[in-house]
Amino acid sequence: MIANRCWNRKTPRLAVAAVAWMGSLIGLANGAEGPNPHEVAKAVDARLKQAFEQSGVKVSPVCKDEDFLRRVSLDLTGQLPTPRQTTLFGLSPAANKREAMVDSLLTSPEFGRHWARYWRDVVFTNATNQRAQLGRQSFEDWLAAEFNRGAAWDEMATALLTATGDVYDEGSTGLLFAHDGDPNEVAAEASRIFLGIQIQCASCHDHPSDVWKREQFHELAAYFPRVGVRPIRDGERIVSYEVVSVNVSRPNPGDALRENADRMVRMLDRNGDQKISKTEAQNARFGGPLATAYDRILEVADADKDGLLNATELKNVPAPMMGRQPNTEHYMPDLNDPASRGRLIQPKFFVDGSEPGQSLSDENRRGAIARSMTSPENPWFAKALVNRMWSELLGEGFYMPVDDIGPTREARFPEALEALAVGFTASGYDYKWLLKTITLTDAYQREIRAASGSPDELPFAAQKPTRLRADQAFNALLTVLGVAEPTPRGGGDGPGARFQALRSPRFQFQQLFGFDPSTPQDDLLGNVPQSLFLMNSTTLSGALTAQRTTRLGRILSEFPDDGDALSELYLLTLVREPSKREREIFSEYLASVGNRAEAYEDLMWSLLNSAEFLTKR
After folding, report:
1. 384 Cβ partners below 8 Å, 6+ apart?
2. What is the pTM of this model?
3. What are 321-342's pLDDT values in tens digits?
4. Domains defined along the chain, listed by start
């Protein structure tokens, strides 16, 4: 359909341009290192085909060029192709034009930005402290540069686990900053993200449905007790935060309070009743932690309920009441004695039982866990990313959810997963190699087919439509409307200015349409606020007019023929030609409205509000 239209308009120029354009792209496909992506892709497809034939499953055919182009452009760069790109791609006779397009997209600057935003959502959607949003942009900028320079996945994982520095200058601090450097939180997220294993369920009790024991979780957390997050001040004003290594134990204010309870009462007691009131604690020159946390301490320690604290009560103050453990060692809480410090735990990696040794510095501890996690001997590091990327590109993974895999879980098509994981490891954890290999598979390039709804239905026999992530949808709107991305107001430096920057149109759109990419697609549903925004946004309404300065206005001016204008609008928004029935419906509507500009405004509004626009097909 696209080719027929093009041969009727500007055919010689476009045909020559298509051949030259694809020829330049094909040149980019040479020089790849590591396992041959074609061979690995064929091996994966062979394993899937064998299972489909044994089960009598009929697979979908390979999709049309325009569907592949839209799909792979959104997957690799988060962008829609332009109508001209779609036209040239459809015209090109090159046998390997799809691979050439993949290679071109992998070298685009938008590749790094797109995947940086993906991982930003993975990390910051689950942040335990909302001030971590201040580090979003530096994290995204750092990761975009890493992806575009071709950094290997193990390099990036190591940087995220071992980072130190100002969170505004060192984007690699994002993961640690997002969780305040808390050993338990960092351990849980590192395992979930880099291994696909949710070991946090074993933090309080042995894992209820997996092999992991409570002690194994705390042995992982023991790699991170010496990480700290502290403010950077300019006088009294906090201007930033930094992730630091804390290798010298700090005195625990709770320990000091309990150990010096008798002396504290003698110093603060002003009326001679051998007790401390809130007024006495706050008026005293040396009230310290007791003065600042009096109400909370009273609530749990006032055994005789007289509203005062005596020495015996102070000696029994639970350790957690005095804030996060400031010690540079990790202690597993005693469930039978919550007030105690707990048992000292040394670092040990739960996957292979390796131990880096005792009394190591923060740098050595975190370096050790980074090496253990990313080691080629650890199969879960490669499988976790392969499974996650396969799911992101095909709509579901070999394991689901993507961040809950492990030795007691059963993968679908385990041999196909193994082929990809072995190849990815052999490539040196080359992120681009993995994405290229997946996009070259028949499984990725198949047409969409409606699911039967049967729980026994095998996946990957057809492509699965998936909901666009917020950044993909926002980029698509900018492309269709032909507008530049608005920049946030404000200037200056410091947290205040950065919070203002978070109020940018993209951030606001992300807050409305965003979700954790780890969430299964079947669990993602649109909602009323999203629909109301697309239907009623004044910004969108203003850009959808047919004035000569808008994208729609320029289309109507350039294409006076309604058949051509309709094709251009469909190619722009949905990256395909309108069907015969769609042409008939619009022709009837145009005649009934009697106003060309108004009819096209209504059509463009309808296309942007369609499920197809917000779906990767």
Report:
1. 193, 194, 195, 196, 197, 402, 403, 405
2. 0.83
3. 444 445 689 999 888 887 788 9
4. 112-247+344-374 (no CATH), 253-322 (1.10.238), 465-617 (no CATH)
